Amino acid sequence: MSTGLEQRFPTSEKERERERVVWRKPKQPKMSGATTAAAYLARRAAQKERVRILYRRALKDTLNWAVHRHLFYQDASDLREKFEANKHVEDLDTIDEMIAEGEATHNKWRHLDPYIVPWAPGGSKFTRNPVPPSGIEIVYDYGREDND
């Protein structure tokens, strides 16, 4: 009587070799130099964009933490030095790790109550004076008469 284990687990060396051949990963097609260069340049451009966005967010958030402008200028120059210190790094994986670490640090230290310009969405004056209803007509003639 067969237990079924013989079908699932190969017993002979030949069957084991056949299983190893079947379960190998297929080879990746070789990319041409142009494709590799294009992929490198695309990834590098995406990283530059992420770094630019991270710097802008951190700089704007620094303005939320600084009470006075002279404090902001010092914090902004310190932030710029941190970014400039890693400008020479060329390894793509290292850059990705550094960006992820910078984003995590920014999210950790982000201001809880950021400054919002009063007339911007979320500001204190946003839609304070709504548009008048459609039935009301406003005439902007400033005292000019119709009999010119």
Description:
With 148 residues, this protein is mainly alpha-helical. It has helices at 5-8, 13-22, 33-65, 69-85, 92-109. The longest helix is centred in the first third of the chain and has 33 residues, at 33-65.
Which features does this protein show?
single chain, 55% helix, mainly alpha, 148 residues, 5 helices, elongated
Brief rundown of the structure:
The protein has 148 residues and is mainly α.
Unreliable stretches (pLDDT < 50, length at least 5) are: none
- The radius of gyration over CA amounts to 32 Å
Q: For the record, give the distance between the C-alpha atoms at the N and C termini, rounded to a whole number.
A: 114 Å
Helix fraction bin: 55-70%
Structure classification:
mainly alpha
Largest sheet: none
Number of DSSP strand runs:
0
* Order of SSEs: HHHHH
The 3D shape can be described as elongated
Mean pLDDT: 81
Work out the helix count: 5
Estimated share of beta-strand residues: under 5%
SSE blueprint and pairings:
Layout: H1 5-8, H2 13-22, H3 33-65, H4 69-85, H5 92-109
Helix pairs in contact: 3-4, 3-5
